[in-house]
Write a structure and sequence with these properties.
mainly alpha
């Protein structure tokens, strides 16, 4: 019985993930979610409660999965940490392109200015930044894989690329010349990010421990790369959000 309950919950969460990402909260029907999951309509109330409870459980599930993916990334200082960093970027970008539902829901709720965004998604974003994203990029800077920028700047830059792939896939495709999701597109984006962040021929500067991810920092980060300006510019909404989250930590 316990196995059946677990399987039913997983099927419902998977169906809800697709419905909320594709149709939004208002457009998603809990009856159609149950039909897609192949379970009775009444089981949603039994396992989760209301539609809002199901949405909350779905988003929590997606954030938890993303945290688990990120926590698997670490560096072996005895190896080539620069190549490890490149591999990490490839893994993270591939995962987000193949599983864009979290970002889609995130964008929908932010644009709508919903109570759900303020109540649940925004605190989850801060948890993601605090527990995973910023500590990871601080390690990248500590290992001197990246020397030109602070961890906060790298965070904003990388998030801009990821966001562009989800929020503006056609625009990003036109920039890289390959369909989003293809191995060539992923390699082109990873190569671009890696080159901009680690190019040893550029002048270096020490990372400031109290740097802010401000618009000025972002402008400095992108001023020498027109292609990057377009890509990050298409993710201005995300940059504004993460800049505020980073500033809140200081």
């Amino acid at each position: 019985m316990e196995t059946t309950d677990q399987n039913n919950r997983i099927r419902l969460l998977n169906a809800a993930t697709a419905a909320f990402a594709d149709l939004g909260y208002e457009g998603a029907s809990i009856r159609s979610i149950a039909d897609e999951a192949g379970v009775s309509f009444q089981l949603i109330s039994h396992y989760f409660g209301t539609k809002d409870d199901l949405w909350t459980a779905t988003v929590d599930h997606l954030f938890t999965r993303y945290l688990e993916t990120g926590r698997g990334l670490s560096f072996n200082a005895q190896g080539d940490v620069r190549e490890q960093f490149r591999n990490h970027l490839r893994l993270l970008l591939s995962d987000m392109i193949q599983n864009p539902q979290l970002r889609k829901i995130w964008i929908q709720e932010q644009l709508a200015g919903s109570e759900r965004y303020a109540r649940f998604i925004k605190p989850q974003i801060k948890r993601l930044v605090d527990a995973l994203s910023l500590p990871y990029f601080k390690e990248v800077v500590r290992l001197r894989i990246v020397t030109r920028y602070t961890a906060e700047e790298v965070l904003v830059f990388w998030t801009g690329i990821v966001q562009a792939c989800v929020a503006s896939p056609r625009g990003t495709e036109s920039l890289v010349g390959y369909p989003i999701g293809s191995s060539k597109a992923i390699e082109a984006l990873v190569d671009l990010a890696f080159r901009v962040l680690t190019d040893p021929h550029q002048a270096t500067r020490p990372a400031s421990s109290d740097a802010r991810a401000t618009d000025e920092n972002l402008a400095a980060l992108t001023r020498d790369n027109d292609q990057l300006k377009q890509m990050v510019g298409s993710a201005a909404l995300e940059v504004e959000l993460l800049s505020a989250a980073v500033r809140a930590q200081h």
